[in-house]
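Before relying on records like the one below, remember that each one covers exactly one chain. Contacts with other chains, cofactors or solvent are not represented anywhere in the record.
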Amino acid sequence: MVVAGEASGDLYGARLAVELKKIFPDITCYGLGGDHMRQAGVHILADVSELSVIGLVEVIRHYPRLLNILNRMKRELKRIRPDVLVLIDSPDFNLRLAKQAARSRTKVMYYVSPQIWAWRSSRIRVIRKCVDKMATVFPFEEKFYKDAGVPVEYVGHPLVEDAHPSMDKDAFLKAHRISSDKKLVGLFPGSRASEVEHNFPTLIQAASQLALKRPDVQFVVPVASTLSADFVQRFASDLQADITMSTAGIYDVINACDVIAATSGTVTLQITLMQTPMLIIYKLSPISYWILSRLVNFTYAGIANVIANKEISRELIQHEATPDNIVQELEKLLSDTSYTAAMIAEMGSIREALGGKDGSAEAARLAAQLITSSE
């Protein structure tokens, strides 16, 4: 059973299922996921879109629905009794499932570590008690878990192997009827509905200002598989500029962009791996941000910035994420070639640091070891 709590986890879970089937051709996979996992042959018990909530206040508001999904998955865990339960990120949901699995003596592998080095480090006690193997995707995580007494192995990041487009830029522009005579600015609003609600209006305001200053720009917005195009389009209805909604592969969209303004999340690592200049924004509800700012201990929000321990791509968080600030940074990305060249070089170093391992295949190998040991 594979449980993914968001769009990126759905992608990782799908790749894991594909690799597991190479090891065990007759394996049956169940899970909580989305379209990627469905296409990989996973029997979906609950859809990942039902969990697409961010922020403490938002979680409280949707708590009855989230609890219902959790209880449903607990019942399925008891009914199916899988050889191994693979949990992908989403610790608030998944660690509760881990406790249930431990009680029923089901082997548990955690794939894509919770960011417990940034906040709520007390969760390490639950992980040590309930998780049989931690498969980390960043090198620095391995030592953290070893020191805490958790069985761990660094498997490599699964995104590295996927980070290439399926078509060149010209083909993408032609397919979407986008002009090749203008700069293409990507507006990446996130994969959760609540992320879009908090961040996309600000991006659209910035795009409107930028379009007035620079008639040579146009915009593209990737629509995550967890969202509907109509929902995303609703936020862009007032933009007086050329804008295209795309459901194409994320790497095709990234490859076509000259610069990108992205909501913080997994997509910022995907952009880094493609070495496309970007800025990062992130906004929560004011109450959620106030609470989290007192709980979370981190210097950077963007994954690549965390890995490098410096600001490779500019971050505009909460009150700094204003249309004026976004426009100022986008103009710099569009005009300052030395600035973007340095950023691209740093992004290349991140890709090199994360390369060398097939993350999905390595994670499947660890899951297969747990399956074999449970027989």
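Residues 53-57 have pLDDT under 50 and may be disordered.
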